[in-house]
Amino acid sequence: MGQKKKHAGDHRTEMGRKVFEKELKRLHVELVHLQHWVREQGLKVCVVFEGRDAAGKGGTIKAITERVSPRTFRVVALSAPTEQEKSQMYMQRYIRHFPSAGEVVIFDRSWYNRAGVERVMGFCTPEETRRFLEAVPGVEKAMVEAGIIVIKYWLDVSPEEQTRRLNDRITDGRKTWKLSPIDLASYTKWDEYTEARDAMFAASHTAWAPWHTVQSDDKRRARLNIIRHLLSVIPYKRSKLKTLRLPRRNAPHKRRSRELMATPVPEVF
After folding, report:
1. What region does 160 belong to: left with phi over 0, alpha with psi -120 to 50, or beta?
2. What local confidence, expressed as pLDDT, does residue 257 receive?
3. What is the dihedral of CA 234, 209, 161, 11, to 10 degrees?
4. What is the mean pLDDT of residues 230-248?
5. I need a labelling partner for 174 at 20 to 30 A (CA). Which of 226, 245, 248, 249 fits?
């Protein structure tokens, strides 16, 4: 079966699974080296993922983190703010998740909710959005001056591919949890999200914390391109990994068999 073409603006064919998995394995090894370097050097890295619904943020984050330690690579995906959090300074609930030395913190959506979904869906006032966009460059400059490496990605999906993915979530029982009433309501507001995104870029694409855009209709290409870029913007040196060998196991003592004091799981399969 031939590989399908992507949307009209992209003349490349979709990347095959074997090619993707081979390259992803190589990049995973580099992420392990990066992990060692972050720990050794006490780096503080903050990675922000933004984009429309079904742009591929979650799958990309999973591809980055599936072969590294969650103690070093920490994912933050905050739910809607509580009443107490609504009474706080807007950035307050995000600041407590910023990285300490030796950590890479990945935000699956971030403080930029205020410039995106909150603005489009009317969860904040135009004045609150304006104040946020005025303040955020200064906040991110303070982060950088405190030694945090700030990396921001916007995953750009076409309307046709977004529709296909959302329909897939509706019909696939494994994915329905990804859909919320907000997702369905925001689907009708493509132009409003485009306007919000453009205003966000204009206000917060800075020399110290620039935005990086990724075309994500082909999920495999997008994931590889992001991991490769992430590795390129964090200066690291490959570690000399020790050669490991299993130690000799002590010979088991002969003992009478006995029933374990535990309940076995039924072997249905």
Report:
1. alpha
2. 61
3. -70
4. 91
5. 226
